[in-house]
Amino acid sequence: MINASGIGTYIQNLIPVIIEKFSNIEFVLLGYVEEMRKYSLVGRGNVTTIDLQAPIYSVVEQIALFNVIPKDTTLFWSPHYNIPLLYRGKLLATVHDVFHLAMPQFVGGIHKRLYAKGMFTALRYKADAVLCVSHFTAAEFGKLVGNNDEESCVIYNGVGESWFKIKKNNNPRNRPYLLYVGNVKPHKNLISLLRAFTSLLSKIPHEIVIVGKKEGFITGDDKITDVADSLNERVLFTGYVDDELLRQYFIHADALVFPSLYEGFGLPPLEAMACGCPVIVSNRASLPEVCGDAALYCDPFNPEDIAQKIKLIIEDENLRETLRQKGLERAKQFTWEKCARETIAVIKKVLSQ
Length: 353
Fold this sequence. Notes:
Rossmann fold, four-stranded parallel sheet, 2 domains, six-stranded parallel sheet, alpha/beta
């Protein structure tokens, strides 16, 4: 999971800090060892790694976890809801969202919904503590799963200091553009964004750049395909890009547009704010909680409203500057150091029980 979008960012930024702070504690990390090497998690004095390549969300994964988790484990921390069902020791789990339960219409197959329901229910009863990345996620967990014996603890994600210090290199595009960043999945609401953008083609000179994986979604969705095809050279699907290019896309964009229907936190708007990119976000889910007064909000179900907000932010230079300044200040409130400090406090509490 270390390379999985939001959860991967969480692991990459949080685990090294916690390992360093608990230098007297032995850590055992499960996962693809070669991937862990990229993030300096291998070779530390208090770290042992165990290669685990079982498919996530599978019976094979559960059997593998049972076989490889050391018997003398004091605490198992799962960074996602796929907890080890057969583990009997102290358990800490992070819940990033309860999307599979909240928006079943976007979850392919009843087996996936049943798996999520079963795993979240098990997590509720087995976990000694549950970390939620926003108050919205904590509320959704309580509503759709029920609270465990201990109330869920809200600890916000962070944004790395390097996002505030991006050096502006050559613009990756040769015309002004709007940016969308995120996996291209139905609940990310790309269809409404593209419809909004289509209505503005003759009014703005911009193109729209979409950074994120689209495999398995665009191909099978005729509505998305038809709208995207009608935009011709005005829309660019980049697919996966490396971190350096991603940051250049952010810093050169006139705005990030993020009309998602459901987020447990929402890292792309926070990263955009940290590098001075104005943001337009949905007024749903966790996004108002994370973005505060530093974003321009839109109704994600109304392409006309999205279009109006895009036109407004493009035409109003003072608004863009205001959002830049407010965004920078807002982003400073979310640090991985704070996230690590609060997480460590929960770990110590669980260990002392």
